[in-house]
Fold:
Amino acid sequence: MIIPLEWMPPLMFAGLVVFMIIGYPVAFSLAAVGFFFGFLSIDFGYFTLPFMQAIPGRVFGSILSNELLLAIPFFTFMGAILEKCGLAEDMLESMGQLFGPVRGGLGYSTIIVGFILGAITGTVAAQVIAMALITLPVMMRYKYDMRYATGVLAASGTITQLVPPSLVLVVLADQLGRSVGDMYAGAWGPSILQIAMFAAYTLYLSIVKPEAVPAVPRTLFGRALLVKCAWGIIPAAVLIFLVLGTIMMGLATPTEAGAMGTIGAIVLAVVRNAPLTKFDKFAFGAGCAAAVLGSIIGYFAFKSLAFQGAFTVMFAAIVWLCWRAWQVKDLRSLIVQACQATMRITAMVAFILVGATCFSITFQGVDGNRWVEHLMSSLPGGVWGFLVVVNLFIFFLAFFLDFFEIAFIIIPMLAPVAQKILEPVVGHDAALIWFGVMICVNVQTSFMHPPFGFALFYLRSVAPKEVKSSDIYWGSVPWVILQLAMTIGVIALPQSVTYFLDAPSNVDPAKVRIDIQAPPAEDAAPPVFK
Structure:
């Protein structure tokens, strides 16, 4: 019996669902389904065996040589280092001192710190665990509503999925074929709007149920408070500028910025935790001063020579600090653990990519892309019908699949259709950026709802025994609703994404004048050359 060609794409999806229900690892499930239907298609005559040679060709040509994906281990390593160096603790303590006397102050502090940490770590696990260990005991001590406390901690941890330089945005940019800088620019509007919505919900609770979010007395005042806040915020701000600024200004690729951020994280960990001598502090200060001075001189004169000299001195200072870090036992455990976490995540992403390649090559061979395009373009409601159905589809997929699996399997299939359908609404260049940011906002909910709400699992693993699991799950409900409202907002207001992408034009079309020289008459005398 020969299975008709038009049945093959839906059967591939059904086979993948069966593997997921069984609980088999997704990376190997993708490869198994791809190879099974691939050899079945060869037997049916839908394509020949040489077609399957595209799998190793794409793995070695498009994946292993993709420089953009090198940003993943760099950002992961940077986040792992910052998770352990005490930065989150200092930030939460300083924000708690600043906002504590206000009702809901600890909630505002958690939201703001989640936003800042999201811009420098990029990992949900690191944020949720770090903030829960530090803030949850304080919230319990001052009788915060337990459902609000667990909900705001879990939701603030998922902010990292949307705030640049999120790994999610890096992967989406790669799968959609758009620049990471544009994806970051498009994500800023929804990121800020999401923070405002979280803060507005906290304000609402402080008004209608003030006993749920009580004020916390401040223990620092004046200069001591100012120093505490500066020490908690300025290092993070510098690191954010180093990583994001170089990418968005076009001074470095995401991989290069990730490498600089990794070095910055190590330096920050050393400065904050290692017992430095006066010589160490002098060497590091001199290196940074030389870099700043050399950059200023290089901007006006000597150019590359001054830049090279400045950064050579700074690099030498950084190498010295790294050597001092390796001599400190606690920091040397820290670095080894960060390397192990980075290797685990990178290996997971690599295996999912290879499995997704096996699946997608076969899917293309049986005209799966045409099937998806026909299915999506025939939906009622035009553009808005497409957006609603796609978001509902991805929302339910997120109950069972991780973001990386959704990005590598579903996004490449939907991208051509999205470009074609959304282009008339926001233009050619912004269509896939809008689509990608919208998917990113939607996928955030996967960390907050059952059965695989990983943010809830992370919170449960570090929460005291007095915290009930039911409080953790019920506490997430209002925040999931807020995230879904964000998704609807991005659909209804594409300007929230495209505003930072639209470059204003200084040319007035009404004043444009085009002079066209009339062609010479046929009977005109030929030109005379001298």
Remarks:
- The two ends are 83 Å apart (CA to CA).
- The first helix runs from residue 8 to 22.
